[in-house]
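To: structure desk
From: M.T.
Subject: fold request, one chain
Message: Could you run this one when you get a chance? Sequence is below, nothing fancy, just the single chain.
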Amino acid sequence: MEYFSASCRHGTLLFRDDYHKEIMLNSLAFMARNERIWLYGFVILEDEIHLLWKKRPAWENRNIRQMLLKFTAQQIKHRLRNARSGELEQYQCQRADRQFQFWEPAAYSSPVPDACAATEKLEQMHDAPFTGGLCHHGAAYAFSSARFYHSGEDPHRMMTHYHQYFPP
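Reply: Done. Structure tokens follow.
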């Protein structure tokens, strides 16, 4: 199991728009339902995402992180371009291989060695929307796995309980 975190470029609030959060949710759901990953936990904040996940065996040699970030960036870019709001310009960059940059180049990942570490990461992730003022309690936030762990609800059919990776 891996903890993965990616931040929006220059701390922009890319995910303040719920539609952009839905793009990320749908991407994660696609990857889970198409057996590319096991998704154990997630939170989508206004300026970053945090995941607990593991690649499925058939995808172990593929760069799942890059696929997720690239696909969501492309979807958001198309939406912003079609909206013609001027918001897209803040993501322009001077790189030779791209015109826009939505993510900070250095994402963070680390292995999760045991169930205690997984529990701690999940609690931090699920508390983040509350401490950031996005909701009154973590389970009320629609863009995290808190509801799944609180009530068992999984409307996107994408979650796997981390106890399946670390049996009690």
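Reply (cont.): Strands lie at 2-7, 37-44, 48-55, 108-111. Let me know if you need anything else for the meeting.
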